[in-house]
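Hi team,

As requested, here is the filled-out complex form for the FE2/S2 (inorganic) cluster run. I kept the field names the same as last time so the parser does not choke. Let me know if anything looks off before we queue the next batch.

— J.
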Amino acid sequence: MNTPASSTERTVRIQIDGAPMDVPRGSTIAAALGTGTARRSVSGRPRAPLCGMGVCHECRVQVDGVQQLACMTPCAEGQVVDTRPARLRAVPTTEACDPSCDLLVVGAGPAGLQAALAAAPSGMRITLLDDNPAPGGQVWRSGPRHAMPSPVRRLLDELAHFSNVTLVTGAKVVGLAGERALLIETQAQSGVQHFSQAILCTGARELLLPFPGWTLPGVTGAGGLQALIKQGLDVRGQRIVIAGTGPLLLAAAATARRAGATVLHVAEQASWASVARFSTALWRWPAKAWQAATLLDPGFRPGSMVTAAHGQERLQAVTLRTGDRERRVDCERLACGFGLVPQAQLAQLLGCVLDAHGAIVVDAAQQTSIAGIYAAGECTGIGGSERAQLQGRIAGRCATGVAVTPPLLRKLAHWSRFAALVHARFSLSEAVTRLANADTLICRCEDVTLQELAGCENWVQAKLHTRCGMGSCQGRICGQAARTLWGWTPAAPRQPSDPARIATLAQEPHDLHTRHTRPAAPLSQ
Ligand SMILES: Cc1cc2nc3c(=O)[nH]c(=O)nc-3n(C[C@H](O)[C@H](O)[C@H](O)COP(=O)(O)OP(=O)(O)OC[C@H]3O[C@@H](n4cnc5c(N)ncnc54)[C@H](O)[C@@H]3O)c2cc1C
Ligand code: FES
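And here is what came back:
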């Protein structure tokens, strides 16, 4: 779908800390914040959006007196945004609505959209739910200057033929509400969704590793930067360094360049030899070979990494290491991502078994260890959007009793081999796990330094002695960092799996027949 020029040009007026600001319609508040600070940490240090996808909670602000994540909240005319502590307002609770569905699909990314479409002919009442303002997940994210990608449009057009499918956007599953019932929260309301079967398509988040200066405003994830740009972040004229590992770095660089930024370096920690072996194996996946060729960036440097970020109130420069040589590079932004990790908290809450990498274990029918609960896409292991879509199709079919065809399984095996290639060629070197020094914050929510964690032998000790992982992101960032740095297993999530409002948590079992009323978006939106 091409967004009409008139709508991309239109702006809305919001107020940030009392100052009026006109922003393109469809931007998120995180994008509107631009280079500004979103909040102060517990020790008063400035913080700004990091992940761009609702995980890190660094972007929490007050919107019309209600605490929201700026990266998940679209700007609306007249909104009053406050980044300073403010008096919060109570949020209305539930209104009557459809109480239940036969099949709940959580996540409307490539896996979830395909799962819903594959299940749709069964006639089951299907609810497809996502916490983003629009469907598409991470790879197919749209925004004010990024029209909805054609694969999403096509899938939505196909889904629009099925009146038994309801798409609900802007709604997050924040916990359990009983047997086969989940707590849902939107920006304005909350409620409970019943289901008979579910397909979890909750995707992945970035692995973000600590290094000196990584909490400075201006430092984001690599995919995080991409997400924020698609949400409307203005990076025109900014100098950007991209660092970390994996194909996502080049995708982020391309998005930043197209948005008018100058990409100075793309520092890939994998060696030249590893990148060369990856490239020469790509002939088996011609579309990927073509994509790699089109994304290749003049600043791409394997065997290099950013070892520190510098600045006071925001980023001003980074230290770039290539081999034994280090140099300082002035820049306005650093986007740093070390690969992806599965988002499996909801599956864990439901009791599904995870593997040693934190991915949901599924069988050949994409069924988890719990009967009637299926999972598809990157929450079952990192493997790219092609694999996620195939898994979604298999899960949708199997959940509705339709057999999986051998060609579908062959295609899945083909893309699983691609996933294995990426893992093998972009595995993390030990050097990137040793960048943090004694004063580097490991837990960004509770301001816990590496030094304070010295002497802790596992995650439980770290939590008990330092409050590491007990802040707003609930250990999603520091827990995964600790797993990578020291091999600690993060604790299983507790109820609720995400910070939730009191009104949401106050839902009683007898409220199970009420639900939030975020309008079920027309499938042809
Ligand atoms: C920040 C980021 C940027 C990326 N950019 C690219 C790219 O440019 N190119 C590329 O090839 N790959 C990219 N990827 C990889 C990408 O994740 C996959 O290739 C693909 O999107 C996986 O599809 P999926 O359906 O498994 O998950 P996703 O696309 O991640 O979809 C999962 C959806 O579930 C939603 N969700 C999760 N938990 C809940 C919950 N509790 N309640 C409600 N909704 C929930 C999420 O918000 C998301 O919309 C990116 C990944 C990340 C993390
Ligand atoms: S930037 Fe909004 S939650 Fe991370």
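Two things worth flagging: The longest helix spans residues 406-425. The chain has four domains: 5-82, 100-205+341-423, 210-337, 440-486.

Thanks,
J.
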